[in-house]
Structures are given as structure tokens and as C-alpha cells.
Amino acid sequence: TYLFEGELQHKDSLGSDQLVRPGDVSWMSAGRAVAHVERTPDHLRQKGSRLHGLQVWLALPQALEQGEPSYSHHPAASLPRSEAMGVQITLIAGSGFCLQSPVPVPSPTLYAELKLAAGASLLIPAEHRERALYLIAGEAQLEGDDLPRHSLAVLPEGEELLLSACGECHLALIGGEPLGPRRMYWNFVASDAALLEKAKQDWAAWNWPRVPGESERITLPGA
């Protein structure tokens, strides 16, 4: 989870209890099983607040899918940044643009927040095989073609591409090495259909790690 506005209180079955503010990285690896909640803190709910951010899921390499779950929190000040020629880059996770994030990743990863001033441009490097741009706000073009807002634009492999800002714009750039196909059902992701089915059965039977102090339960969709 990466916020632009608002705050969230993260709690999970590992015992984590962490306030997440804009620019922080709240990073959880599900492994074989984990449960968590993210809620707006009481003091903000009482007066009303805006919550805006991204929750991005990264696939685990197959060998780690049944590993130990984990959680780490990385304050905004710990993330590497660069700013030049009207382009501001924050490296959220992985590596890119000669920056290296402290967030732990199990495979080569690129996850960056980009802010461009009007008229600025940025060459998107080809160092990661899979890359995609998500336009959060503003107007931008890639190689002269308009980028649709709130849509994921998948980039061709192996090509350096020019990103141009038509006005002030805000984007996320994600990518990394291909890890093969994954199956997904609700909040469960696995490369093996049997693992996915077991997760569904365990959740439906409430045979799942629980968040300390939480009693709310969400029924398995379709159950």
C-alpha cells in the first residue's frame, strides 16, 4: 500500500500494528497465509477525510509461494528520490533510474512514482522485461500517443520509450521479471490450482490466521 492522501492503520495476523501515512510503503508478503485489516484511524473518520493511494500486488516466485508471511513498514524519508528537469522520481520498490529502494523484493522489480511538470519528459529505460505505466492524474503521452487515465498501459519489451507531460502529471511505473501465469480468486493468488482451492476451503472453514483484537469476518464470495 502506498498513499498519496489520508492515513491507514494496518494490522495483521503477524501482530503488526502500524500507522501508514502518505509516502510510506506498507509492504506485506502473504506467503502461505496471512490476514490483515487497513482502516482509516478513528480521529480521521470522525471529522471526515480523503483517502487516495495505490495497493499493488506483486507475484511471489513459485518457490516462495508457501513461505513465511512477513510485513515491513518503510517511512517516506527512507525512499530514494531524484529530481531534475521537471521530473521527480520516487523509487517505491526494486531498482531503476540508478536508484535502489530499501523495500525487500523476492525478484527483480520496478515500482516508481513519477511526477512530471508541464512540458517535461522522461526516457523509460528498457532494463526490466515487463513494464507498465498507470496515469494517476493529469495528461501525458508515450511516444506521442495519449495515455488513458486510470488505465494500465503495458509497454513493449526491450524498447526505450519517451514519456512526455502535456501538463502536470502523476504516474506509477511498475514492472520486473516475468514469473509465469498465476490463478486468482478473490484475495487468493497461486500458480497451482490446488493451492488456490485449499485457500478457499481454509477461509470458508475459518481455518486461517486471525488478526489480534479483530472479530469481523468476511464470508468467502460465492460460498
UniProtKB/TrEMBL annotation:
InterPro entries: Pirin (IPR012093), Pirin_C_dom (IPR008778), Pirin_N_dom (IPR003829), RmlC-like_jellyroll (IPR014710), RmlC_Cupin_sf (IPR011051). CDD domains: cupin_pirin_C. Residues 1-58 form the Pirin N-terminal domain. Residues 111-205 form the Pirin C-terminal domain. It comes from the Bacteria. It holds the Pfam family Pirin. Belongs to the pirin family. This is Pirin family protein. It comes from Aquipseudomonas alcaligenes (Pseudomonas alcaligenes). The lineage of its organism: Bacteria, Pseudomonadati, Pseudomonadota, Gammaproteobacteria, Pseudomonadales.
